[in-house]
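Suppose you are handed only these lines of text.
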Amino acid sequence: MSQNAPSISPNADSGYALGRTEQEYERLREQARRFEEATQLILRRAGIPDGAHCLDVGSGSGEGMRLLRRFVGPFATVTGMDVDGGLGRASLRKLRDEESGRFEFHELDIEKADRIPGGPYGVVFTRLVLLHLRDASAAVRKMYEAVAPGGLLIVQDFDLRTWETFPAFEDSDLPRDVLMATLRASGKEPLIGPKLPEIFRAAGVPEPDECWRTGGMAFRRDGGIEVGLELLRSTLPAALHLGVVTEERAQRFFSSMEQRMRTDDLLYQVSPTMVGAWVRKAR
Ligand SMILES: C[S@@+](CC[C@H](N)C(=O)[O-])C[C@H]1O[C@@H](n2cnc3c(N)ncnc32)[C@H](O)[C@@H]1O
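From them, the structure of the protein bound to S-adenosylmethionine can be written out as follows.
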């Protein structure tokens, strides 16, 4: 099972729980496709106006930027920012090849930057990033400062607690448990989604105008289970480094899961719920 064999990655030291490999970037794109509906819902509810300049903080594969572009039309600029400059620049090239519209990218570590450059923006959006930060409320404060008067701050992040495999077997929820424990052990908050209103308050941002929880189910037949397995593969180097799981336990899980994937047609998961919160800044 060489594809499951983890190698200690430099991310175990930088504090990022996930990998920085092509395989992980493909997983991010697949995950983005699976959560597209959830993101469209919150973007629609927030009422993004045509022509608003947008910023996507922690833009990753650029799929959030692609969605924002659909809302604001071809004449507004959609800017991505990410600490992973290689991924961000590759995603920018892809977006410019595949979509009409104005796209930009800047390499930025939201935790290290005093402020977000290039603002104010009509929309500041971030998805599945706060989960990876040591100080989520400090980042939210900077994001809100970058919102123009009358503009929108829109945040989405997971409630990982809902992520569960059925029919259950011994350690069947290991991917969830390992991700949550790895985040906790590296000083992050794994319950970030449900805590968004509290995080807004700690950041000095007004209470969200609305919050929505959305999520689907993933079946063996639609490849959804594989996305979760990839997430565990991506987390494993950091998890082993931090001692939250042993190699033996992880390999036992992969073997059990592989066996069930072969023998149980109805293997499925309740996906992590996506929690979205948005607030409009006063004029
Ligand atoms: C799970 S991915 C989500 C990517 C994208 N927002 C999406 O929803 O598909 C987390 C992203 O946050 C970025 N990130 C992590 N820490 C960051 C930081 N301190 N500053 C900026 N970006 C960061 C990672 O490089 C990665 O691209």
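What can we learn from it? Residues 1-13 have pLDDT under 50 and may be disordered. The longest strand covers residues 147-159.
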